[in-house]
Amino acid sequence: MSLRSAGRNRPSPIKDPVPTPPRRGNPPRIRKRNRLIFNDDEDTSMSPIRSSPKRNRTTPTNSPAKSQHSRDPHPKSHSVPSTPHKSSAAAIQNLILSTPAKKSAQKTGARLKNLLKLPKAYKWCIYEWFYSNIDKALFSGENDFLICLRESFPQLKCRKLTRVEWCIIRRLMGKPRRCSPAFFAEERAALDAKRRRLRLLQQRKSNELDTSDMKDLPQEIPLPLVIGTKVTARLRNPHDGLFTGQIDAIDTQNATYRVTFDRHGLGTHTIPDTEVLGTEPQETMPLSAFLNKQRPRPSLFSPPRITLDGLHSPGLDHDPMLGMSPLRGKLQGDEKKLGGFPVKFLVLVTRLSKILGIKKDLLQELKDMNTDAERMQSLNQSSALDFKENYAKCVLQLEKLNDALNTHLNDVQQYCQEIAPEQGLPPLSEPTADRLQCDQEASQMVHDANLALGDQAVKNPKLNDLIASLTSLMLQIKSLAKNDMNSYGFKSLNESLDEMKKKIDPSNLRCFQDNVEVHIAHIQSGMSQMGNLHAFAEKNVDY
């Protein structure tokens, strides 16, 4: 203890300064460099941390001036007047910054920025969401599970299943192969093969590919990027990350692009096409354009040429536009063939293609309307009157299109039967001959099997006929897979299915559809990649 003089107050003890607590939700970062954090030298705070101003506590005193001021009902303000425009702009800015959504966005942005500074998180975001132009077409389509589910269970329309129903479906589909080294190696090899085929199509080298090589390719083929396109590319050295740039050169031999980056100091680098993404929407070309092979032309015949001898007409001699035009013969109808094909046939094909395009758009519209109807039904909502009217109009338009489509299909098939031998194509009676041969082989196989079984042979003639028809169906599929697939081969296959349906008892028709017809349709979809030509596969079809 120390002595204190009389009349002096006790000195106040010296307190340690209390550190200001950090703002809740955004603690200050430790500025020690961490080798595991990318770009740790950058500031990640969205706004500086400001502590609340200290308020000095004052003891009340009895001063007449203050008491008089407190009694004044209308105190005068001594603030400096400001410009109304500036004050309103500042008020709006403060209002925007003080909204809860803005604060939440700032917090989320700060957390996301801190997350992306971690190398593993940054790479995970690249692998998850960055797809090049050539890979986007391969990965943006339907996955294999969805395709397999739709083809295995075509009558499954429900979107919500119980656990028991889902377990039954998984048991029927079998256990998938995944997360094994062999599976990953197989998937990577398949992906590299698809990329190689896409590059050949981009270089217009479709003659190096067979029709079977295009089965698993997407319906829309992306076109290669051109020089001067703005892109986002993955750079690995000297900095690892995504950077924007511009294409300066294209190397089709090595499937690379020469990219000049916008960021200062990066320079120009060679980037593979699997790590380059265009900033603008990519241009595509339908796969059916590459599937149209060049037709063989007869060597002794050539398309008719237009001569000037037959261009004299009294009615058009003084016409300055059509008097000496080389298209005059076509406009007058003198030329009956164009490019070796009848003009009427080309007109029918053009109309048929337009009808198919319109029908495709209507089907997509009908599909969207069905989705909306299912959603409203699941929510126990009634459909509006406008929705019902639009749905009825769409159905009526489809009915008219189907009538016109059947008419044009019959006319086109008649022309195909006439011009097929002239174009060097096999005669259209060949699928019928193959079908008869398959029927004979199937009957012989069933007869030999019954002889080998002896007493256990099937003696019912209807059952023998059904077994022979099913065997003939498999032989026809085998013949289609070996030969060049065309629409008439599939037409013969569908005719065989229709004949088998007529032989089956109506009570067993549902079983036939689930166990035979569904799998045949699955095989057909895997064998055929003909674009719009699949409409020629049947005759007199009720669309």
Describe the structure.
- With 543 residues, the chain is α+β, with helices and mostly antiparallel strands.
- The protein has a 5-stranded antiparallel β-sheet with strand order 5-4-3-2-6.
- It starts with 63 loop residues before the first helix and ends in a 16-residue tail after the last helix.
- Among the domains are: 133-141 and 177-290, SH3 type barrels, CATH 2.30.30.140; 430-537, no CATH class.
- Mean pLDDT is 73; it is low at 63-73, 75-86, 293-335 and 529-543.
- The radius of gyration is 39 Å and the shape is extended.
- Strand 4 and strand 5 form a beta hairpin.
- Helix content is 48%, strand content 8%.
- The chain has 16 helices and 9 strands.
Order of helices and strands: HHHHHHHHEEEEEEEHHEEHHHHHH
The overall pLDDT, averaged over residues, is 73
Number of helices: 16
Counting DSSP E segments of at least 2 residues, the number of strands comes to 9
> What is the makeup of the main sheet?
5 strands, antiparallel
Strand order of the largest sheet: 5-4-3-2-6
Give the low-confidence spans. Answer: 63-73, 75-86, 293-335, 529-543
- Known CATH architecture of the domain at 133-141 and 177-290: Roll
Q: How much helical structure, as a percent, in the residues?
A: 40-55%
- Termini separation: 109 Å
The radius of gyration computed from the alpha-carbon positions, rounded to a whole number of angstroms, is 39 Å
The general outline is: extended
CATH class of the domain at 133-141 and 177-290: Mainly Beta
**Class from helix and strand fractions:** alpha+beta
Oligomer: single chain
Coiled coil: 359-418
Subcellular location: Nucleus
Protein name: DIRP domain-containing protein
Pfam families: DIRP, LIN9_C
